[in-house]
Amino acid sequence: MSTRYVLVLVLLAAFAALTITCLLWRAQAQDQQAAFAAQSNRLRRLTQQVASLCQQFVYGRSKAERDAVRQQLTEAVPQMEKAYQAMLTSPALVRLPGQLALDIRALVFNPPVNLDAQTRDFLVRAKAFITTGDPGAVQSNPRLLYFLTIAPNQLLNGLDSLAAQVQTNYARQSAWLETGLWAGFVGLLGLAGLVVLRPVLRTQAQQFRDLLEEQRRLGRVLDAVGQALLTVDSESAILAVNREVERLWGYTEAELVGGTLCLLPVARFPESPRALMQPPGKLQLDTLRGERMELEGIKKTGEVFQVEIRVAEHHIGPRAFFTVAVRDLSERKRIEAELAKARDEALEAARLKSQFLANMSHEIRTPMNGVLGMTGLLLDTPLNPQQRTYTDTIRASATALLNIINDILDFSKVEAGKLAFETLDFDLRQVVEGTVELLAEKAEARQLELLALVYSDVKTHLRGDPSRLRQVLTNLLDNAIKFTDRGDVLVRVSQESETDTAVTIRCAVSDTGIGIAPEVQRHLFLPFFQGDGTTSRKHGGTGLGLAISKQLVEQMGGHIGVESAPGKGSTFWFTVPLAKQPSAVPTPATVPAPLACLKVLIVDGHEPTRHTLQYHTACWGMRADAVASGAQALEILRREAAAGQPYELALVDINLPDMDALAVTKAIKTEPATAKTHVVVLTTLNHRYDAATLQAAAVDAALVKPVRQSQLFDCLARLIGEATLQKASAPPAAPPAEADAPTTAAPLPALRILLAEDNLINQKVAIGLLEKLSARCDVVENGRQALQAVEQTPYDVILMDCQIPQLDGYRTTMEIRRREAENKVSPRNRIYIIAITAHALRGAREKCLAAGMDDYISKPVRLAELQAALHRAWDFLNRPAEPPAKTEPPSAIDRTAMMTLRELRQTGKPDPLGELIDLFLTDAPARLQEIDEALVRHDVTALETAAHRLSGCAGHLGAQRLTDLSNELEEAARQSELNQAALLARELAAEFQHVRTALELEKVR
Predict the structure, then answer these.
(1) pTM here?
(2) Which domain-ending residue is among 282, 300, 328?
């Protein structure tokens, strides 16, 4: 081998060795670059993870979700910090090629990128975020919020630059290596170099693909937040949006980013967020941060939709940025609209139901008026026993049917929420004892003792609704009498608690009846429930009484319950709070001196009656003893008289087990030792003596059970008091008239009466009742005849049926009042009109009075009610002249405005007044609803607008007070006085009901 050849071989070998050395050195450098790139990518991935977790924590929907995210952050932040430290201290960074190492260090440590400062600052903020633990606290710290939303993007951009630098250098070196391999190693060395570098290239490509996937994953996280997110600067420029913004508004990201909020127009803003509509440079989003606002957005297609926005502010140095979170409310608003529609439909159904009940009440009560009225008149005529029995049966059946109708109507009122309660002064003792008196005849028919005991410590001068209290008590007493075959029914009234202004009373109705099983008690107060629901049940009834009582008691603020056991009787009780009468001054009961220490003997075979009478007499300071039979009474009377301590008074029951009450009285009066004892006989409704019989037996007085406490006191005071000597020779007090005797009523003063009634039976009933009152009447059958009769005869009183034909009672009354006004008839000389209607629902009385009627009685007409109404008419027509200063309360509408609108009517054209009334009654409820909704939203602009519109509508129809209230509400809204506005809104709604009634009546004139 020649020297040259050897030299070539040596040179070739040296070149090959040098080439291999260079290739190995370059391959090692690329390995270092790959290792550094892997560390950089790991740091980037952890940075993305921490930023994503922070955003999930800020917008987390529940505490549990945020706690889970907090735990992940606690683990991810240290990993990110370790990855960063590992990258900085990596040997790969030291072994990088010179220029590449300098470029990377410049990116990491020098401005403007300065990845080291960004990374360390981000880690510090992330650790502070973990310890903060409250999204609200994060949102209230703008700088921290900035470093958790915008800073991660800048840090990721820097890491991307770092990766790009390494990638560029890697590509350049790869090209050099490939060129060198091709030039220096045409054969085996080039192929070997490629085989060595291929795994490195694959690793770098995979790392690059991982980086792209990480970026896409972060984008999906932002899109999955569920809310539209916009980042806006102080110049209203949109910096970033997520995919939800594109979906809501229909714009693409390219159309939005770089534009302004003018690309997202908003309609009908509330007062506060009008800053969103200002031109660029004048945006005032800083005034809206932390608020939740509802508004209407407009999509790219022009469609309007409901959204809710929240604004968060953050700063980067002196620059302010805003993150606007937007939530679509379209579905919620659709549901709210459906609920409002369902509510309106329910209200309309309730109105139709009330109208149906009113009509049914009229249709049923009209024939019932004829049945009960004619039966009452028939009973006042001479009848043989069989005829009287049949007639009594008819009256009892009709009364039972009327009670059933009343129960059904009351229950319907309960269901419709139309129960009305009054607040009146009343005497509790009179209500209780009066209720017991009403049911006394029914109890006696079943041979039951009916008693009432109001304890002496109970405050009786109270304020509340006595009729509702009486209704509950009547239901409980009626049930007790119905389900008790023998024994007694006792009402006890006690006082549970007392304050300075109110008391809580407890009424308990106890009986000795059949009792109630525990499994039945649980259902007693349910509607239509009966212990025996079969058609063959013994006691009858609708099963509504207890359900109605429960509703009444609970709406009065009380409670109701039952205590019972089968075969041991029952006790139904209820408690209600009642106010004390402000003007009631408690005065101690004054007992006459002779009465205070009176020695009394009570003779009654019924233990509860003896106990009740003993309690009453003891409260008056008397010394009372009680025995159960006549023989015992005579024995103790003789013994005490012989001992020099005679009884001064004896109360003797008519139903003694061994002797007749009159026989006991005669025995007392015929013995000299007991002759001075005053005897009071306690009779019943169906077992009474006439005055001659009582006088023959030397009875001093007679009282009918159940005895009122006041009646007993007056009787004893009359017998034993200071006037005893003067009245000793007078005949004893006459007992009540016999039950079967015809009833008579005190005659009325002379009144000219006109009856407007189209039903022949009702005419006969009314004429018969008036004849019993010694009064007469003229009869007309329709409204037009009534107007003609009034023109011909100066009537004092009109009994006006509201449903007469041609011209109903309301319009007839309004026409009479109009003629009186035209003729300037003084209030003292105008006709007194009494409405007679079969409508029993709430509002019937108000409608009659609004039409101009003076009084109201419902069918079936009862003698006592008619008599009381006619006496009120007499008192009204003969009342003293009123002082000139006294004026009538203002009407809901101005009659002058009505007359002006009526003058606009033209022949052959629709009535403009009727059209205006229809439009107002349709529009006003919508305005009132807008007012209520505006108050709920605290939207003063909408409130002011709705009040202004209502004021304009009401003013045209002369509803002056409604107009004034609307103006006051408008001013309150303008001044943002929402509390005052809420009070005015309630007054406005109440006044509208008066205006509605007046306009409806005006429309039918």
Answers:
(1) 0.45
(2) 328
